[in-house]
Amino acid sequence: MSFPDIRSSILLTDLYQLTMLQGYMEQGMEETAVFEFFSRKMPPQRGFYMAAGLEQLVEFLEQARFTPEELEWVEKSGYFSKSFVKYLERWRFTGDLHAMPEGTIFFANEPIARITAPLPEAQLVETRLINLLQYQTLAASKAARCVLAASGKPLIDFGLRRAHGAEAGLLAARASYLAGFAGSATVLAELLFGVPVFGTMAHSFIQAHTVESEAFEHFAEAQPENVILLIDTYDTEEGAKKIVALAPRLKDKGIAIKGVRLDSGDLVDHAFKVRKILDEGGLSDVQITASGNLDEYAIQAMVADQAPIDFLAVGTKMTASADVPYLDCAYKLQEYAGRACRKKSEGKATWPGRKQVYRHYDSQGHIDHDVLTTADDSQDGELIIEKILECGKRISSPIPLPQSREHAAAQLQRLPEKLRLLREGTTVDVQVSQALRDLAQAVDAQR
């Protein structure tokens, strides 16, 4: 049996999705179900989230089906009946998807996505839906905070090598670009998504040479249009002085040094010293890139210190969303066969029914509050959940990533100042409408 493409395999799911499906099939439970995906609460370290991953979800929903190899596994697993295997041969997603556009800011209890489909279809897509939306949302939200902290300085994603798997690294490059990063070091992200790719050099290139300045010169000759040199392998300031000494020789060859990179030590202190060395050596146009365990907090400090750093490379802490490594999220049944449903578990209660979010702004155009209400309760304000798929098909062309990136930038501009400052424990009020409260009360009365 050949190894399936994990990005599209319908078996990239939890076993209980399939066991429940057989139960639904045997009982004829195929009426319309409504599930919503949302975050239960905001952690103290997050005042907002940025929705991401919708494009990959749409691709999955449109293409999801069981291959002959996957059906063979289902049949041989011993868990399922032959009639169920026949049923899976015909399985397709034929439902509707409503969602927030990628790049949209959202808060606790607001549905990021809503699936309306026959129950077996809506149930089976749960695991991959959460997997795709949760991770990219985490990465985009962390990246958005770095963008705010950077105050206009360009950011580059350096996180692939420390990502939790190949797909995570690739999707982090996409999500961070959506959130406002200038690009990524991940080559495949440019091929697949059009994310601009950036690169410098590693310490190993320097160490492979016996003379540091010789390593600089060899790299410049190999990459004459992209000469960004890593100068902290041995002594950062001495490395900068070697750059000054090398520059005239490279200029005679028609090669200009674009930048240097700092990757260790007190980056702010080194940046000031290196900038002085470069300027005094006539290299005021050479830019400084800083990398090494950066996140929004470190970036905020650098900006506050007015460090002369031109580019910031953010890796592990963004790709792994280090301070908030998971979204406290859920994909819950909100309606089945026309009957609103509500979970009442302690600490995990949900609001029933299909929902919509209306956004309200203050006089300066910043987000003031949101209203969470039923989908049929028309309200004032900006409606932020849109229909994306109908009967399993897109209702309009895919939104290009650059356009979603512009939407994300506009969303960040509309954040209130208390969220732009990244202070812990601050968020936006999400008001629950009377219509939704009445529906919850009616559902509770039926139990």
From TrEMBL:
Catalytic reactions on record: 5-phospho-alpha-D-ribose 1-diphosphate + nicotinate + ATP + H2O = nicotinate beta-D-ribonucleotide + ADP + phosphate + diphosphate
UniProt pathway annotation: Cofactor biosynthesis; NAD(+) biosynthesis; nicotinate D-ribonucleotide from nicotinate: step 1/1
EC number(s) given by UniProt: 6.3.4.21
Keywords assigned: Glycosyltransferase, Ligase, Phosphoprotein, Pyridine nucleotide biosynthesis, Transferase
InterPro entries cross-referenced by the UniProt entry: Aldolase_TIM (IPR013785), N/Namide_PRibTrfase (IPR041525), NAPRTase_N (IPR040727), Nic_PRibTrfase-Fam (IPR007229), Nic_PRibTrfase_pncB (IPR006405), Nicotinate_pribotase-like_C (IPR036068)
TM stretches of this protein: none
Domain Nicotinate phosphoribosyltransferase N-terminal: 11-133
PTM (free text): Transiently phosphorylated on a His residue during the reaction cycle. Phosphorylation strongly increases the affinity for substrates and increases the rate of nicotinate D-ribonucleotide production. Dephosphorylation regenerates the low-affinity form of the enzyme, leading to product release.
UniProt cross-references to NCBIfam families, sorted A to Z: NAPRTase_put, PRK09243.1-3, PRK12484.1
Protein family: Belongs to the NAPRTase family.
Descriptive protein name: Nicotinate phosphoribosyltransferase
Species this chain originates from: Candidatus Nitronereus thalassa
